[in-house]
């Protein structure tokens, strides 16, 4: 059974960079697409971007601040979101899909990141 | 971006009830529609994709229907473990977008 687990700091200061890692177990990170999604009470669920091998696709609304990388040897991929504000406070999820036009089939349970000084 | 509108935003139902949730897309999405179940503190769970295909392991009490822009999720006989929030999501075009959710509560 594929499992995804997000990890990273739960508190980030305004203007700094949010960094999260998703560790994939029970399957290889190769051959799949890996996305980051966040959830806020105000905006609901918002797709952030995906990585497939070294190729990425980002939500235009966040593109200037987002970097997603994959570390195949560790079966992990990561999210960096720069210049954060309180509006970036959210639960961040990682998820798997089998293609760019495929649904998310596995999700992590999410990690809350609060942006505050 | 494609806007996804769900209704109702919440509903109260009893164990054994038949429950229907609707989702409307702001443009045609070629049945690239998924339904997702979310329980507090748990990983979201994919229930249905391609509007009506059950993910592996999902019980047949869940069903999806619809085409074009209008879609429906039905739970045929609500059980205690089904009380959760349900989201629709389109993956026809980027960025993928989600409905606002329907919270199913115990009456």
Give a written overview of the molecule:
The complex is a heterodimer of chains A (117) and B (107). Chain A is mostly beta strands. Chain A has strands at residues 3-7, 11-12, 18-25, 33-40, 44-52, 55-58, 66-71, 76-81, 90-97, 104-107, 111-115. The radius of gyration of chain A is 13 Å and the shape is globular. The model of chain B has no long low-confidence stretch (mean pLDDT 96). In chain B, strands 2, 4, 5, 6, 9, 10 and 11 form a 7-stranded mixed beta sheet that branches. A 4-stranded antiparallel beta sheet of chain B has the order 1-3-8-7, with no helix packed on it. The A-B interface holds A 4, 44-47, 57, 59-61, 93, 95, 97, 100-110 and B 32, 34, 36, 41-46, 49-50, 55, 87, 89, 91-92, 94-101.
The radius of gyration of chain A is 13 Å
Which sequence of SSEs, written as H and E, runs from N to C of chain A?
EEEEEEEEEEE
How far is the first residue's CA from the last residue's CA of chain A?
39 Å
Percentage of β-strand residues of chain A:
over 45%
Which word captures the global form of chain B?
A: globular
Largest interface: A-B, 23 and 24 residues
**Distance between the amino and carboxyl termini of chain B:** 36 Å
* Low-confidence runs of at least 5 consecutive residues of chain A: none
> How many β strands of chain A by DSSP?
11
Structural class of chain B: mainly beta
State the helicity of chain B in percent bands. under 10%
Residue ranges of chain B: pLDDT <50 for 5 or more in a row?
none
Mean pLDDT of chain B: 96
Number of helices of chain B: 0
Q: Which secondary-structure class do the elements of chain A indicate?
A: mainly beta
Content of β-strand of chain B: over 45%
- SSE succession of chain B: EEEEEEEEEEE
Tally of helical runs of chain A: 0
Shape of chain A, please? globular
Spell out the key features of this protein.
heterodimer, A: 117 residues, mainly beta, seven-stranded mixed sheet, four-stranded antiparallel sheet, 0% helix, B: 107 residues, 11 strands, 50% strand, globular
